[in-house]
């Protein structure tokens, strides 16, 4: 392909943007043609590494060699690549008939964020950044293994985002990796902007209550998962990574467990599971016991419950659903609101509404206690995705209990267990307990 | 995957009919129930309506802090049968009568003398919401009096009477607790007799007295055990863990505090349908009170005295029971369990043999201290 044709092709491609800058430099028998998009590149670097040397070097040959030696240098394989890379912030350099790409990308989003979702008391407070290169840098600085492999795939027809597949070649399960690669190739979407989107697109069963990939913003969790042989997916511009295959118990560990002594972390773990069951079962148990089998209570409690329900116009399950509905609204509202206002919202919602509801006897005192206990114990679940799932399952359990009583609750819980047992995440049984795994290679606890 | 879908369909097809069968209880809000605290069953004065039922109902309250006084309401009615009486009682209350929290069933003394226990039991056992772990007791002078009395200092929502039997409140040695299931077992089994605590209210007094017990066979006249005999039977039955026993012998008169009681009993078969009741009882504790100064060096001697005294008391109490043919301890069951069915005596023969049984009691005393510091 002749030089003129190529340049003409480039003009054609970029004719719709007015940001493409073309610089033609001639000096002392040297000739250089530059193409770049002004808003994407680092001007200082361009000046320092290309423009200055151009005027200083004695011959075109020397300049050629110098450019080849630059670490930002990139070989060209196709015309399409040129277009893509220029759009990403590369500078196209033409000397005679030679085409080079130099990466002078300017990214303002490579600063590391503070952890905001999975906060801990001990341990690192830093999360990933929005920049893919920085994130890979973070992983590599924490995980020194030559077997750590990074693959890139471009996703999204319109926005052409880079997706990185990161894994430890020695530890990863090849069949999982193959499925993920295959699924990623098949994703046919216009816009890919978050890792969680991939979660929905590459799963077998898109309609599922429980997450099959664990989303995290903590580098230490990613390292932990890499060592466990999991595959990590990053999307450029997204500070959250997803790790897969994920089992149920992954969602119940926090990285803080590693920062405590054994007894303390065991205690915290017991507390967490207690919270899980409480938030899952408490409202349903309330409905079942008050409306179907009051014998289960102690006499005093039965009388208190009966007494506090005096004047409440709803049946117990309406009461529970009504209060839970307000609690869910409150939770959602406090997420959306600006930080300064959200504290007020919780006070108004939690305290004032709670008191007012009992005063107006729209719900019993005991109900308010139960709803708050449920709300608090939901927050104990360390990974947010799981907490959301539990909130949905809880409603289903309340529904079945309202119809069939405690027997229905037991049956509903049994169905939930069967559902979990039946589920798998990329071939990994969802309720697998790694500590008892026979397959040492996949054992996460042992690494 | 059509196969998997079929399986799911089949699963749902099976599951849904099964769920609909799981009716269990109906949906009823807790504030539409009224909880029955005690049932009192008396003999009524009317000829054709022999049963008089009195129910003690809890009045629910939102906060016991605001109303710490116990509040109850009572309804009572006479009927030809218990079910009929309860059916009518249901019309006396705007809410559903819920027997799930009934902890005590008091039977009037008069009614027991009429030999109606079997009929009562049938109703109590069959009704599904009456718990088999309720206690059964005898009310004197009548069940209604007992049920309707609220002693001073009673807590709201937990009638004082329950504390006598649950082993958490008072742990007196003179109280026998009989659960409904045990009552039923003793009733239906021919070789063990029923023992029930007697709850008494004396005139013009505002407290209960529970320190006697009543023994009755399935058909015979009830026999009352006095306080001391109740204690001894209680000890053999291992109902109590602590007891105070006295020794009055050879010029000494002291009380022992027993804090560990272990008893074993066994029926030995001698020749000619002659049986021997063998009881071995370990009593460990210390001396808690004495009329005379005691010498710690002489502890072995005091133990000997305690052993003799204990033996005499046990033999005396048991002899009286055995002579009248009452068997609350269950020697008959022990005998049946240890003998092959083809070599066993008939029930009549056993009763005869039991009345003439030899009683062998061995008290193994374990007084560890005189209670005084040397």
From TrEMBL, chain A:
Record keywords: Membrane, Transmembrane, Transmembrane helix
Lineage: Bacteria, Bacillati, Bacillota, Bacilli, Bacillales
PANTHER family documented for this protein: LEUCINE ZIPPER PROTEIN 4, SPORE GERMINATION PROTEIN
Family to which this protein belongs: Belongs to the GerABKA family.
Source species of the chain: Ureibacillus chungkukjangi
Domain of life of the native organism: Bacteria
TM region(s), chain numbering: 270-292, 312-331, 363-383, 395-421
Record-level GO BP terms: spore germination
Name this polypeptide is given: Spore germination protein
One Gene Ontology cellular component: membrane
TrEMBL record, chain B:
UniProt keyword annotations, A-Z: Germination, Lipoprotein, Membrane, Palmitate, Signal
Compartments where found: Membrane
GO cellular component, one term: membrane
Membrane topology: Lipid-anchor
Main localization category: membrane
Example GO BP: spore germination
Pfam (any one): Spore_GerAC_N
Coiled-coil annotated spans: none
Alphabetized Gene3D superfamilies for the sequence: Nutrient germinant receptor protein C, domain 1 (6.20.190.10), Nutrient germinant receptor protein C, domain 3 (3.30.300.210)
All residue ranges annotated as the Spore germination protein N-terminal domain in the record: 28-201
Annotated family: Belongs to the GerABKC lipoprotein family.
Stored PANTHER family: SPORE GERMINATION PROTEIN B3
Protein name: Spore germination protein KC
Organism: Ureibacillus chungkukjangi
């Amino acid at each position: 392909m002749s030089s003129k044709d190529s340049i003409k092709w480039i003009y054609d491609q970029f004719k719709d943007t007015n940001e493409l800058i073309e610089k033609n430099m001639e000096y002392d028998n040297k000739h250089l043609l530059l193409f770049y998009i002004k808003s994407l590149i680092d001007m200082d670097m361009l000046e320092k590494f290309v423009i200055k040397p151009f005027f200083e070097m004695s011959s075109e040959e020397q300049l050629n060699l110098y450019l080849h030696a630059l670490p930002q240098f990139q070989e060209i394989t196709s015309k399409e690549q040129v277009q893509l890379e220029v759009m990403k912030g590369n500078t196209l350099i033409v000397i005679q008939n030679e085409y080079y790409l130099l990466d002078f990308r300017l990214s303002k989003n490579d600063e590391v964020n503070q952890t905001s979702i999975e906060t801990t008391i001990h341990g690192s407070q830093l999360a990933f950044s929005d920049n893919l290169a920085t994130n890979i840098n973070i992983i590599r600085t924490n995980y020194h293994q030559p077997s750590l492999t990074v693959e890139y795939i471009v996703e999204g027809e319109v926005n052409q985002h880079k997706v990185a597949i990161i894994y430890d070649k020695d530890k990863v399960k090849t069949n999982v990796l193959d499925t993920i690669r295959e699924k990623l190739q098949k994703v046919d979407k216009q816009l890919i902007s978050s890792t969680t989107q991939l979660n929905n697109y590459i799963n077998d069963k898109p309609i599922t209550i429980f997450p099959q990939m664990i989303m995290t913003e903590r580098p230490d969790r990613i390292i932990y998962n890499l060592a466990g042989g999991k595959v990590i997916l990053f999307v450029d511009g997204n500070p959250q990574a997803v790790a897969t295959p994920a089992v149920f118990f992954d969602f119940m560990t926090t990285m803080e467990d590693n920062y405590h002594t054994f007894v303390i972390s065991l205690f915290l773990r017991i507390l967490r599971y207690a919270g899980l069951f409480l938030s899952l079962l408490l409202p349903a148990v309330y409905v079942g016991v008050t409306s179907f089998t009051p014998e289960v209570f102690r006499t005093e409690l039965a009388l208190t419950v009966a007494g506090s329900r005096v004047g409440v116009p709803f049946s117990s399950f309406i009461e529970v659903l009504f209060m839970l509905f307000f609690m869910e609204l409150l939770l959602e509202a406090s997420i959306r609101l600006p930080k300064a206002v959200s504290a007020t919202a919780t006070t108004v919602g939690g305290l004032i509404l709670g008191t007012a509801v009992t005063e107006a006897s729209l719900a019993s005192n005991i109900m308010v206690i139960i709803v708050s206990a449920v709300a608090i114990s939901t927050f104990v679940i360390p990974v947010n995705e799981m907490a959301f799932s539990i909130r949905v399952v809880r409603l289903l359990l309340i529904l079945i209990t309202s119809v069939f009583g405690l027997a229905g609750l037991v049956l509903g819980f049994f169905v939930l267990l069967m559902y979990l047992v039946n589920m798998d995440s990329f071939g990994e049984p969802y309720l697998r307990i790694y500590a008892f795994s026979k397959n040492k290679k996949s054992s996460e606890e042992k690494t | 995957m059509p196969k998997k879908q079929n399986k799911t369909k089949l699963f749902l097809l099976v599951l849904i009919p099964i769920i609909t069968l799981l009716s269990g209880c109906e949906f009823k809000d807790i504030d539409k129930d009224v909880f029955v605290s005690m049932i009192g069953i008396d003999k009524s004065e009317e000829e054709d309506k022999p049963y008089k039922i009195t129910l003690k109902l809890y009045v629910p309250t939102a906060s016991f802090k605001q109303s710490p006084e116990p509040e109850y309401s009572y309804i009572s009615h006479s009927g030809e049968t218990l079910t009929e009486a309860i059916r009518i009682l249901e019309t006396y209350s705007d809410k559903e009568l819920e027997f799930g929290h009934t902890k005590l069933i008091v039977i009037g003394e008069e009614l027991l003398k009429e030999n109606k226990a079997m009929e009562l039991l049938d109703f109590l056992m069959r009704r599904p919401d009456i718990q088999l772990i309720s206690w059964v007791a005898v009310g004197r002078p009548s069940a209604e009096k007992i049920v309707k009395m609220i002693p001073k200092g009673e807590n709201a929502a937990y009638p004082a009477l329950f504390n006598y039997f649950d082993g958490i409140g008072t742990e007196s040695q003179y109280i026998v607790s009989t659960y409904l299931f045990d009552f039923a077992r003793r009733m239906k089994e021919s070789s063990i007799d029923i023992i029930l605590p007697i709850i008494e209210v004396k005139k013009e007094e505002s407290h209960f007295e529970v320190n006697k017990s009543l023994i009755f066979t399935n058909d015979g006249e009830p026999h009352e055990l006095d306080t001391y005999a109740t204690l001894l039977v209680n000890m053999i039955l291992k109902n109590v863990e602590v007891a105070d026993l006295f020794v009055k012998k050879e010029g000494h008169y002291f009380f022992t505090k027993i804090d560990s009681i272990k008893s074993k009993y066994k029926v030995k078969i001698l020749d000619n349908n002659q049986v021997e009741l063998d009881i071995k009882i370990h009593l460990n504790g210390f001396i808690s009170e004495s009329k005379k100064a005691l010498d710690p060096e002489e502890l072995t001697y005091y133990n000997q005295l305690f052993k003799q005294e204990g033996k005499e008391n046990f033999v005396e109490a048991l002899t009286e029971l055995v002579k009248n043919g009452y068997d609350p301890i269950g020697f008959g069951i022990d005998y049946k369990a240890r003998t092959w069915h083809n070599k066993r005596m008939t029930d009549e023969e056993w009763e005869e043999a039991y009345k003439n049984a030899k009683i062998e009691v061995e008290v193994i005393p374990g007084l560890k201290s005189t209670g005084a510091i040397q």
